[in-house]
Each structure stands twice: as C-alpha cells, then as structure tokens.
C-alpha cells in the first residue's frame, strides 16, 4: 500500500484537505458564538477568550490524505465575569453543538485588548493614583499613559485567584509626542482585570520625570535628503498561486493558517509533494527584564500566552510594510463579547531576490555557471504595547525553510538620576534609561520529514586525540546520537562541539543508505539569566533548553502551558517532558527556543532599528544533491549600469 504521507500530490492536495485548514471565517465564528451563548451553562454574558480551528492530529492528516474528509471543528476558551476559571470547549460546526466542555477553576483567561484599555481608564480615575501623580507635579490626568502589564505570580495574598494587571505609567507632554521618554518612576497600580477593582497602589518613589522631548513622529522630525526611488517590479506577475489559503510556489506547497493566540501558522509544508513539517508557528514569547528595583521585578511578560499575537496583528500598508507585487490575506478574530474584528491585509505574501543561489568558475575552461535564487516570503507584524514583532517565513529554491523575527518599536523605559543610571540599565538620555532584557521565542514545529515516524539526532564535533592514528593532531570528526526519550532530548547548544540537531526519518533511506533528514540551523540560542527557582524563572522554565522534543499530543500546545496568566509553571514544557516518553520513530514535535539578548543602546531610542534573530530548517540528506542545481539560467535584463548603459550591452 502506498504511504498517504508520500503520495498526496500538490495538485490534488489543495481540494482534498488543505482547504479545511483555513482559519475560521467570520460566519463560522459568529455561528460558534451563538452555539455557546445558547448553552444553558454559559449564556449571553459569556466572555470569549479565543475561538479557533481545531487542527487535525497526525492520524487525521493521514486519513484525510487517504481520502477521508477532515472535520471542520473548533476550539474555544471562555469565561464568566463573575465566576472563576476558564472553560475549554470543542465544537462541531457541521452539527452546531458543543462536543466537549472542561472547566479549569483555578486557571485565568488571557487578557483581551478591551481589558487593557479598561485598566488604563480605571487607574487614571483612582483617587490614590491621582494623588500620587499630584505629588509628582501632574495635574492633567489625560496626559498620563498607563500600560497594563500582566502581573505574574508573586504570592501576594490579595492577588490570589484573580486575573491581575501590574501597571507602569508615562507622561505625554503634547499630542503625538513620544511619551516613553517621560516615565513616571516608582508608581505601580495592581488591578483585578475582570472586576476593574484597584487592589493596591505601590509607590516606590524615585527620581523625577525626565522631561526632554525625544520625538519620532514625522510631524516633529526634519527628514534627511531622500534617496532616489528603488522599485521592485515583476512585469509578468508573481510565480506563486494562492488558492484560498493553500499556497503553491516553485517546488513548495503549504497552507496558511491563523488564530487569535499564535497568529500566523503554516500547515503541511511540502517540497514536490514530500512532507517536511506538519505545522509550524511561534508558540510563545517571554520578555524577562533584569531590574530588581521598585516594581520592575514583575516585568516578565508572555506576549503570546498572556495576550495573544493574533489579536495584535497589524493591518499592513502596500509600499511601506510590503514592497513589490504583493498578495494579502485578511484575518478575523473574536472580541471579548464574541463580535468579529477583521484585520485587513494582516498577512503579506511576496517573492524576493535572494542573491546568488550557487556559482562556480571553472578557471581551466574559463567557464562560469551562476544561478540567482529567489524566495517566497509569508509575513506579518504584531504590535504588543510598546514593541513591534515582524515575523517572516521564507522558502528558498535550495530547500530551506527560514524563520526571521525582526524586533522594532520602542524599548521599555524607566527613570534615573541624570548621569547615574542603574547597573541594570543603559542611560538613553539624561534621566532616561532602558533596562537590560531578553526576548525569548519558542517555535513549535510538528515534524513530518518524508512522512510519519521521525526521530531527532544530535551531532557533536570532537577533536581526535594525538595518537599513532592522528600523529599530526589535525583530525576531528562529527558524531551522531539518536535522542530516544523526552528527558534525553532536553538539550542546550554547545559552541565547543558545534552541537546541532536534525530530524530524520529512519524508515526512509536516501541514495547512500542514510535516513533522510532536515537539520535545525540554530544560530540565535540565548542563555537565560532568571533564577530557576524564582517566580519568573519557574514560569519561564521552557527557556532553560534550546530544544525540547515531545511525542505529538493535541493538548500539549504551548511551552509555558495552556493558561499562562498568573500561572506557576506547573503545566509548562519542562514539566510535560518529565513523563519521559519515547520519541524515537514517532510523530514528534520539535520545540526550539531562540532569541535576542538586549543590552539597550542609545541608538535603540526613540524607535529601535530592527534587530533580527531566527532559525532555519535545511535539508541534510533529504535530496541526493543540490536541489537548486536545476534552477534555470537567467539574466536580469532590467539591471543597468549606474553610470548609464543597459544590461549585457
């Protein structure tokens, strides 16, 4: 019998099952909201956290590729304003009913956009906060900007059982002004997000508000001389085909998904029909700050698990966010009351020149062969408070899958005495400082290299000891080891051995008798500095290793746990792997932790230039030779000499 993983072609895959992986549409979300509100245990006052497609399991994938129909089911997480806990639901769209409902009475829901705005309103109206601002010389409360950070879990008795926000504030001097230049230091308010109750005002005191204006808005910045136009043109149109949410380009095919928590998702990534990754997405982002001073020790925010990337996705602008010949996809997410919010042009799809793909000059024959490469890019940008995260999934003609995260926006700021910055921060302007911090991402990669039954191999390089076998001391070699259980696969990078990892399919051998494989290229592994036993360290325990490997389980979706707000880390990835299950020749999930270690520079303010991190999956014995060797020879005849003259003249 043919392997259904292997035989589904690009042409037949789109109508057969990729269409069923499209994100929920507005009509579907509306129908699901109605089903939940009509249920007697929920009702019309239900608050909606997330509503998303229930994605198929590996077994359901295999059945679909063998001809069965994928169910169009959904997941939802809901809560009640006057009741504790979160309900996790699965629903059938075709049957218009709730399939399962599980209540988690001690868990807290994610924080929604509307609630963040409510927290600011509540804090600005609180008499204690108004009085504390007055002592700092602030009379106009409309000029005060309050950022509602999640509160973590620090054992405060008055916060137990509540959904907590711990706030930080800044002062806006005039319209469109950069208020992050004016932190109101030492003033933090603790709010119950669900009830709107101000629980506590913590006034730590501190230096005066820095008042130097540091603008970035074009209304206030005199621009330098503009450069001449640089246009990206494709006179014959694009080379990709987007059928709904199913993509075909060159040898690649995949489906583009989206949900309110993860944001951008890619499904069923294949090269010429051969599967590589079943599902790829960011699963978490935690930003630990390094200052213990005042209330800053609580700054350890989980932007995906506590807020959700999806709802903070930007509507992109042609010619600004995206250049060239662009295809966009809109997305639809639920709001707190179940209504629909449509993000137009949320996902950008385009092609880019990727430079030289390969080249060789045969100097004896004086003959040169060169091929330029191109890549397909799927991207989106999310703004969470002061920070922008631009993510780019790219597919190359040499078989690589690349992920790049560009971080920009405004760095978090606090105040100091001019010329006396904290040891935990960099002074950006007199009296204004940016604290040391990290951005730690975790990608969740459901692997399917040439089908089902994958394993992970670790490779280390060692020097051969000087011996009769190695008399000149020049020998070194790479050694492979299969990681067989979850605990064995909780691994850190090691520059001393150039440690790397690859996912193999032991049941599929290549032309030299080795298992076909894809290698994880992981150049941005970061060392975390949080104490493992501290409150933030416990919640961020997934950052302790650079890879984790688990057998697929449909309810093990997030490295910091399903419910992250005010969590204690007890359902995190570090706890899950203690089951120490077999991961050899299984449907496996590869979790990769990477990121940015950010010692803030003055050049990072008022808006930080993009800094990048990421990883790639690259073929390692998946092909018998360079898969880009057959890319056609071409010369770009739109290229001209800068001083005049056409290409090839």
TrEMBL record:
<comment type="similarity">
    <text>Belongs to the copper/topaquinone oxidase family.</text>
</comment>
<feature type="domain" description="Copper amine oxidase catalytic">
    <location>
        <begin position="230"/>
        <end position="628"/>
    </location>
</feature>
<dbReference type="GO" id="GO:0009308">
    <property type="term" value="P:amine metabolic process"/>
</dbReference>
<feature type="domain" description="Copper amine oxidase N3-terminal">
    <location>
        <begin position="109"/>
        <end position="204"/>
    </location>
</feature>
<dbReference type="InterPro" id="IPR049948">
    <property type="entry name" value="Cu_Am_ox_TPQ-bd"/>
</dbReference>
<keyword id="KW-0560">Oxidoreductase</keyword>
<dbReference type="InterPro" id="IPR016182">
    <property type="entry name" value="Cu_amine_oxidase_N-reg"/>
</dbReference>
<protein>
    <recommendedName>
        <fullName>Amine oxidase</fullName>
        <ecNumber>1.4.3.-</ecNumber>
    </recommendedName>
</protein>
<dbReference type="InterPro" id="IPR036460">
    <property type="entry name" value="Cu_amine_oxidase_C_sf"/>
</dbReference>
<keyword id="KW-0186">Copper</keyword>
<dbReference type="Pfam" id="PF01179">
    <property type="entry name" value="Cu_amine_oxid"/>
</dbReference>
<feature type="active site" description="Schiff-base intermediate with substrate; via topaquinone">
    <location>
        <position position="387"/>
    </location>
</feature>
<keyword id="KW-0479">Metal-binding</keyword>
<dbReference type="Pfam" id="PF02728">
    <property type="entry name" value="Cu_amine_oxidN3"/>
</dbReference>
<dbReference type="InterPro" id="IPR000269">
    <property type="entry name" value="Cu_amine_oxidase"/>
</dbReference>
<keyword id="KW-0801">TPQ</keyword>
<feature type="active site" description="Proton acceptor">
    <location>
        <position position="303"/>
    </location>
</feature>
<dbReference type="InterPro" id="IPR015798">
    <property type="entry name" value="Cu_amine_oxidase_C"/>
</dbReference>
<dbReference type="GO" id="GO:0008131">
    <property type="term" value="F:primary methylamine oxidase activity"/>
</dbReference>
<feature type="modified residue" description="2',4',5'-topaquinone">
    <location>
        <position position="387"/>
    </location>
</feature>
<dbReference type="InterPro" id="IPR015802">
    <property type="entry name" value="Cu_amine_oxidase_N3"/>
</dbReference>
<dbReference type="GO" id="GO:0005507">
    <property type="term" value="F:copper ion binding"/>
</dbReference>
<dbReference type="GO" id="GO:0048038">
    <property type="term" value="F:quinone binding"/>
</dbReference>
């Amino acid at each position: 019998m043919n392997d259904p993983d292997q035989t589904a072609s690009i042409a037949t895959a789109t109508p057969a099952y990729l269409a069923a992986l499209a994100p929920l549409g507005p009509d579907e979300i509306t129908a699901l909201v109605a089903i939940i509100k009509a249920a007697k245990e929920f009702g019309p006052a239900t608050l909606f956290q997330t509503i998303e497609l229930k994605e198929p399991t590996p077994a359901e994938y295999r059945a679909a590729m063998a001809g069965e129909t994928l169910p169009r089911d959904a997941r939802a997480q809901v809560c009640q304003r006057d009741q504790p806990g979160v309900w996790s639901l699965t629903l059938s769209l075709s049957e218009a009913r709730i399939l399962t409902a599980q209540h988690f009475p001690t868990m807290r829901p994610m924080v929604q956009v509307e609630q963040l705005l409510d927290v600011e309103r509540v804090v600005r109206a609180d008499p204690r906060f108004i009085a504390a601002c007055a002592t700092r010389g602030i009379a106009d409360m409309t000029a005060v900007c309050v950022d509602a950070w999640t509160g973590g879990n620090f054992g405060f008795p008055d916060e137990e059982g509540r959904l907590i926000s711990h706030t930080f504030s800044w002062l806006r001097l005039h319209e469109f002004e950069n208020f992050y230049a004016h932190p109101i230091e030492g003033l933090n308010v603790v709010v119950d997000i669900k009830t709107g109750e101000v629980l506590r005002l913590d006034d730590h005191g501190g230096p005066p508000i820095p008042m130097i204006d540091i603008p970035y808005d074009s209304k206030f910045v005199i621009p330098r001389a503009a450069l001449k136009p640089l246009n990206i043109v494709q006179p014959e149109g694009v080379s990709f085909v987007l059928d709904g949410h199913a993509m075909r380009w060159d040898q690649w095919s995949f489906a583009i998904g989206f949900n309110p928590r993860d944001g951008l998702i890619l499904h069923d990534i294949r090269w010429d029909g051969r599967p590589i990754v079943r599902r790829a997405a960011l699963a978490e982002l935690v930003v630990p700050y390094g200052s213990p001073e005042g209330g800053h020790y609580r700054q350890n925010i989980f932007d995906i698990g506590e807020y959700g990337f999806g709802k903070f996705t930007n509507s992109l602008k042609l010619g600004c966010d995206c250049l060239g010949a662009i295809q966009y996809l809109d997305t639809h997410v639920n709001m707190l009351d179940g209504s629909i919010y449509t993000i137009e042009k949320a996902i950008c799809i385009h092609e880019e020149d990727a430079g030289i793909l390969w080249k060789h000059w045969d100097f004896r024959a004086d003959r040169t062969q060169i091929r330029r490469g191109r890549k397909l890019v799927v991207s989106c940008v999310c703004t969470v408070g002061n920070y922008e995260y631009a993510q780019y999934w790219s597919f190359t003609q040499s078989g690589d899958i690349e992920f790049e995260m560009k971080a920009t926006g405004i760095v978090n700021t606090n105040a100091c005495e001019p010329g006396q910055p904290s040891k935990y921060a960099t002074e950006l302007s007199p009296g204004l400082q940016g604290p040391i911090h990290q951005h730690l991402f975790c990608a969740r990669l459901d692997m399917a290299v040439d089908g089902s039954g994958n394993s992970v191999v670790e490779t280390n390089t060692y020097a051969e000891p000087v011996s009769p076998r190695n008399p000149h001391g020049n020998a070194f070699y790479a050694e492979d080891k299969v990681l067989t259980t979850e605990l064995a696969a909780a691994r850190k990078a090691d520059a001393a051995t150039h440690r790397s990892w690859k996912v193999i399919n032991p049941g599929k051998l290549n032309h030299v008798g080795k298992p076909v494989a894809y290698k994880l290229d992981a150049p941005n592994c970061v060392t975390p500095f949080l104490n493992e036993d501290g409150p933030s360290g416990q919640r961020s325990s997934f950052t302790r290793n650079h890879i984790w490997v688990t057998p697929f389980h449909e309810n093990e979706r997030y490295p910091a746990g399903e419910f992250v707000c005010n969590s204690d880390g007890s359902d995190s990835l570090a706890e899950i792997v203690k089951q120490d299950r077999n991961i050899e020749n299984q449907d496996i999930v590869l979790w990769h932790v990477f990121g940015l270690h950010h010692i803030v520079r003055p050049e990072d303010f008022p808006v930080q230039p993009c800094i990048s991190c990421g990883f790639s999956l690259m073929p390692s014995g998946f092909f018998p030779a360079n898969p880009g060797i057959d890319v056609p020879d071409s010369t770009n005849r739109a290229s001209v000499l800068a001083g005049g003259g056409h290409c090839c003249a």
